[in-house]
Amino acid sequence: MSQVKRAPAPVAVGKTSAASGPRWRWAAVAVLLAAACYAPFQLVPFHVFQLTMVLIYAVALLGLNLLVGHAGQISLGHGAFFAIGAYTAAILLDRWALPYPLTLPVAAGVAFLLGLALGVPAMRLRGLYLALVTLAIAIFLVPLLKRFEAVTGGSMGLTLAKPVPPGWSGLAEDQWLYFLTLAIAVAAFLLARSLLRSRVGRALHALRDDETAAEVMGVRLSSYKTLAFAWSAMFAGAAGCVYTWVIGFVSPDSFTVNLSITLLAGLVVGGLGSLFGPLLGGLFVMFVPSISQDINEAAPGVIFGLLIIAVMYVAPTGLAGLAERLIKKIPRKE
């Protein structure tokens, strides 16, 4: 009798490849955290400050990613919620001398409530119309902050003391602020990950892919659209609060509409819908404008735009998508 040759079982291969993916991701996270903890002890204070700002922008972009990348809603006013969080923390510290840790939940909560309010018109608007509404918020916020000078400090802004490192830590001020920001960023990423892996994440993805089909499946469009704006604003408010701690100064001119546009550009370059996209976007938001300024002081905006075009040409799905494609090309053992 002729022997029948058996083909290799595809199920085992599938399990191996599926299991290798999470292992690679967890290994990358472990290496990244180790490098993040090691970096402030090897860098000069200015570079530590730059990394701190990268983490702050990453938290803000984490919220924008929930809204744009996972819920499919457009926003050109994310910088306004960033400013709301920053000014809430600054006013609490300046007027009421509230302890620094308490300003974080208050700033995030105020931004969350304002995000809920913005989510109401979002239930009826989409696309270009929704983008214009969010853009209008970013535009009128600056003159609004200047008008209420008794509270916000007007055009002069508010100057604040930075958190002082405790004696037991043995850390310099820049290192202490960095580790505070790192802890908040890690907590924010874990919160976003748990949201996306829950029923909420599945509802947001259904809303993004096809609103009609999502509604047929039982997803309450109005509720999840509103909550998407609120969650997005909450992350931005928390980032704005930490920004106030790190900078020690807030003024209306720090939160112009350019900030909102830069944040959106950073998210697109980093990678929409990717959990690591906001981190790469934070690097982009922090370093690319300064690089553009160094290349050509007369026209940094032109250089900035050309760099965005170049990155999107090389990586249409963002830097996170490019990294994922490169990792998949690495040969693995059978």
UniProtKB/TrEMBL annotation:
Its main location: membrane. It is found in: Cell membrane. It is a multi-pass membrane protein. InterPro entries: ABC_transp_permease (IPR001851), LivM-like (IPR043428). It holds the Pfam family BPD_transp_2. CDD domains: TM_PBP1_LivM_like. The chain crosses the membrane at residues 24-41, 47-68, 75-93, 99-120, 127-145, 176-196, 227-247, 259-286, 298-315. Keywords: Cell membrane, Membrane, Transmembrane, Transmembrane helix. This is Branched-chain amino acid ABC transporter permease. It comes from Nonomuraea marmarensis.
